Amino acid sequence: MAHTCIHWFRKGLRLHDNPALMAALRDCKELYPVFILDPYIYNNTLVGINRWRFLIGCLKDLDCSLRKLNSRLFVVRGKPEEVFPKLFEKWKVTKLTYEYDTEPYSLSRDKTVTTLAKEHGVEVVYKISHTIHDMDRIIEENNGKAPLTYNRFRTILKTIGNPKKPIPAPTIEETKDVKTPCSENHDKNDGIPTLEDLGHDTTTLGEEKFPGGEQEALRRLDENIARKARTGLPFIDAIMTQLRQEGWIHHLARHAVACFLTRGDLWINWEEGQKVFEYLLLDGDWALNAGNWQWLSASAFFHQYFRVYSPVAFGKKTDKNGDYIKKYLPLLKKFPAQYIYEPWKAPRSVQQAAGCIVGKDYPQPIVQHEVISKKNIQRMKLAYAKRSADSAESPSKKQGVKRKAKSVIDMLQKKDKKE
């Protein structure tokens, strides 16, 4: 059967290494490449201006690649469960392909769309390519449970074997019998959106704030770290400044700020940091972001809570002169290398020569790391001891019933409130 097919682009905004797209081209007489601007993104996720800009750039690049194959990208606005039935009927679609997504919302969304497709007589084909391995297969190989240690994860991967090699992008020869409709004959809203289309005022880029209704901790994060980067610790402030400006930071920089925010210094729940990163990162991935924050906060997966990143010494290991700080915090660029990580220790005459008075032009440190980190290590020690005692006494554990994991930091925050 020669199909009229929709390939639904979601995260994999590329032609290469896209097995679902190749599946769309098989036995295909007409192909519609589609990206849907789902209102869920606006209403239920934190997406900053840089991330929107990056998405638009990716869509434009994808459209450009498709046009080289005499095709184009259709960008459609609306809920997928409302959009697809209309497209199925309008384009007489018989096959739908997409890349498998493991996020909770995505699984629910895809289940609904698949049901609708079957009701319209549309065959559904999905391929796994967003993750290197099939996550369901990994859980299956681990007796139906997610592996909780990296070593266990590696052991399971050895039994599964190596992943398939990436496949190249389709060529013009592979698509020349496939009809690829152009834009002129379709709705005006089928096009690449602009920031204005998405409701952003581009004259105030960089000045937007977090969406309303968030917790007090998130507001505090916005004020002290994300928006102003004014913790008084230059290495931390430089990292968050780069993140806000560029939407990317080195993974060790992510380690430093995540530890600083949670168990190391500020003692804020890791979920608040997760929200900030979700908002600011260009390459933010829901599962990786949450997993990394749990790891760095020593709430799950990683439990060596006594290993704390110093907001001073850690940066010095690879950047003694503080060039990174000088780039992202130009206010401090005239400080001598010996004071660039700790400007509050510089004599008044040095601060004056640098044109930056600590406490006036740049804030005093929000915490004393050498003091608060030791206190927090003891708090973590108590939390782990309490959790071990609770686990030993829990009847549900003896009966083999799964218990909901709790953040040790969250547990102690509740304890502090009671006291």
General description of the model:
By secondary structure, the protein is of the alpha/beta class. The chain folds into 2 domains: 171 residues, HUPs (Rossmann fold, 3-Layer(aba) Sandwich); 206 residues, DNA Cyclobutane Dipyrimidine Photolyase, subunit A, domain 3. 47% of the residues lie in helices and 7% in strands. The chain contains 19 helices and 5 strands. The chain has a 5-stranded parallel β-sheet with strand order 3-2-1-4-5, sandwiched between helices. Strand 4, helix 5 and strand 5 form a beta-alpha-beta unit. Helix 17 crosses helix 19.
Describe this protein with a few key phrases.
about 425 residues, five-stranded parallel sheet, Rossmann fold, DNA Cyclobutane Dipyrimidine Photolyase, subunit A, domain 3, globular, disordered C terminus, alpha/beta
Describe the structure concisely:
With 419 residues, the protein is of the alpha/beta class.
- The whole-angstrom Rg is 25 Å
For the largest beta sheet, what order do the strands appear in spatially?
3-2-1-4-5
What's the β-strand tally?
5
Ends: how far apart?
Answer: 70 Å
Strand content: 5-15%
Number of helices: 19
GO cellular component, one term: cytoplasm
Pfam families: DNA_photolyase, FAD_binding_7
Binding site for FAD: 283-285
Family: Belongs to the DNA photolyase class-1 family.
